[in-house]
Amino acid sequence: MQQRNFHFSEKKRVVVKIGSSSLNYEKTGRLNLTKLEHLVRELCNIRNRGMDVCLVSSGAIAAGRQSLGLAERPKDISTKQACAAVGQAGLMMVYQKLFAEYNQVAGQVLMTKNTMVNPVSRENARNTFEELFRLGVIPIVNENDTVSTYEMQFGDNDTLSAIVASLTGADLLILLSDIDGLFTDDPHKNPDARLIEVVERMDSAVYGMAKGSTGSDLGTGGMTTKLTAAKIATLSGADMIIANGKDVCILHHIFDDSFTGTIFKADKKDSFRIADFILETIG
Ligand code: GLU
After folding, report:
1. What is the assigned CATH class of domain 3-281?
2. What is d(CA 231, CA 225) in angstroms, rounded to the nearest whole number?
3. I need a labelling partner for 114 at 20 to 30 A (CA). Which of 160, 167, 247, 266 fits?
4. Which of 20, 56, 77 to mutate to test the pocket of ligand 1 (most atoms within 8 A of CB)?
């Protein structure tokens, strides 16, 4: 593991995103409770360092699919929404229980695209996050999959987590993924693919490295959505890290500046408006 001096321990507000493929066993699709426990401990520990913490957690649809006994990830929207309704409640129950063990209060925030494009809802959401942080609460965010129809969907939690980072003025976004970071090529196919450690600027060379597929049937994000997230986060003034969520202990290694992953450096543009970006690019 390489030592770098990015001083992430000096950050003030951190958004951590974990995907379904990191939270569930690949073979059964069921929740990996040990991992969830470790994740919660790591997040509480980041709070104990004195930072505001927000978790963007997927896994609602996967959890609901398990509870309802569906063998495969549903494709039609109403079954997905039914799975999310069941699964989101179950997921929060587990999170609440685990956070309570560390005496940490967690709250649920469910968002749709409408939350962001409507100025009144956006301002309300911003105020709610601010108040939750003031009260020391860890917000747990997901897309409101039960009501967000195709037209109003973010669609993936990589993008959603960057939007949350932008909305809340976070200075660090960490995407825990099933891959070590951004590679020069798809490492599953090309053994010569190299991990990129630092991305100073989002340019066409960086976009050229993205491969579209997710490699798992649990979540929705691939490298393309991670680069969209990187664009939103960096232009909003946050550093972003892609790191492997296989072992969530990587979180404390990040704050010790000693980990494997890709760092996208903040490149704040005052003219960047998250609502305009959503309208122009996400649809
Ligand atoms: N919101 C979806 C869920 O909780 C997941 C979206 C994603 O994994 O990107 O199941």
Report:
1. alpha beta
2. 10
3. 266
4. 20
What whole-number distance in Å separates Cα of residue 85 and Cα of residue 43?
A: 25
- CA atoms of 11 and 98, how far apart (whole Å): 25
Residue with tokens 């309704």, as numbered in its chain: 85
99-132: pLDDT as tens digits: 999 999 999 999 999 999 999 999 999 999 999 9
Ligand 1 atom closest to the Cα of residue 88 is 4
Kindly give the number of the ligand 1 atom that is closest to the alpha carbon of 218. 8
Q: Which of 17, 21, 58 to mutate to test the pocket of ligand 1 (most atoms within 8 A of CB)?
A: 58
Question: 26-50, pLDDT tens digit by residue?
Answer: 888 889 999 999 999 999 999 999 9
Residue 266 DSSP code: P
Written as six digits, the tokens of 87 are 């699964």
Q: Is the pTM of this model over 0.90?
A: yes
Q: How far apart are the first and last CA of the chain?
A: 40
**Which ligand 1 atom is nearest residue 83's CA?**
10
Domains of the chain, by residue range, sit at 3-281
pLDDT 10s digits, 156-215? 899 999 999 999 999 999 999 989 999 988 888 888 889 999 999 999 888 888 754 444
Cβ 178 under 6 angstroms from ligand 1: no
What is the whole-number distance in angstroms between the Cα of residue 15 and the centre of ligand 1? 16
Burial code (b: 16+ CB inside 10 Å, e: under 16) for 180-208 equals bbbbeebbeeeeebeebeebeebeeebee
- Asked if residue 262 lies in contact with residue 242, where contact means CB atoms within 8 angstroms, the answer is yes
